[in-house]
Amino acid sequence: MIRSMELGLKGLDKLDGKMVEGFINSLNLFEKIVLRLTGVLFIASFKLEGWESKLPFYLFRCSKHGYQIGYPNGHGARLICFECIHDGIKNLGK
Fold it and tell me: In terms of DSSP bridges, do strands 72-73 and 78-79 run parallel, antiparallel, or are they unpaired?
């Protein structure tokens, strides 16, 4: 489990591809196997600046953008790729 790098984050905009790659490289063999087989791995629960409480964060695989880091969203607690959301917003204006 990733224990320390993410605790200093101020927002999800700080989660770039290099950070995601760093998370993946820091995983032990068991965690890499779980991620490969399931496509999802719990990282840690932590609180971002301005949030009232902690949320669980996961490393997960998006079929379009590769590995992403996010938290469960909405009533269905779905992991949503923020790059997919940004792509959708960009395409609305076209």
Answer: antiparallel
d(CA 32, CA 8): 24
Q: What is the H or E stretch that residue 22 is in?
A: helix 17-25
Which residue in this structure is represented by tokens 């995601």? 20
CA gap 70, 59 in Å, rounded: 7
Contact 48, 9 (CB under 8 A): yes
CA angle 82, 87, 91 (to 5 degrees): 150
Please list the rounded mean pLDDT of every run of 10 residues in the chain (94 residues).
43 66 88 93 84 88 89 84 80 69
Question: Which of 60, 79, 73, 82 lies closest to 90 in space, CA to CA?
Answer: 82
pTM: 0.72
